[in-house]
Input
Amino acid sequence: MLSNPDMLYICASKFQMLEVANIACCSYFDDFYTTAKRKIDVVMRLAELYRPYLFFKAIFDDKNTDMLRAATRNSMDSEDVFHFQFDPLTINWEDYMMNVHFPSVVKHLFK
Output
């Protein structure tokens, strides 16, 4: 399996070959080259943007949230508890990521 540096090297070398072919053919592939360069720039920008999150090694838990919810249940009446419910287990994370987060990132990235 290829490592990330190997994959980047292969992509970069193929793109350089396209650049050389474009120059050799008197800019015949200029439109294709420009479009490909823009797409690669966007992918590289996204990779840089998400790098800290992709390689973050922390483990998250919700122990403090559970304790706060328990304290809230004990100190508030049932109507307030209903209105201030914040159980992260009730969130559909896949739906959130696919239908809210990613579309928002794409929308603001391509402004």
Q: What stands out?
A: The CA atoms of residues 5 and 11 lie 10 Å apart. Helices lie at 4-24, 30-54, 63-75, 78-83, 93-109. The mean pLDDT is 79.
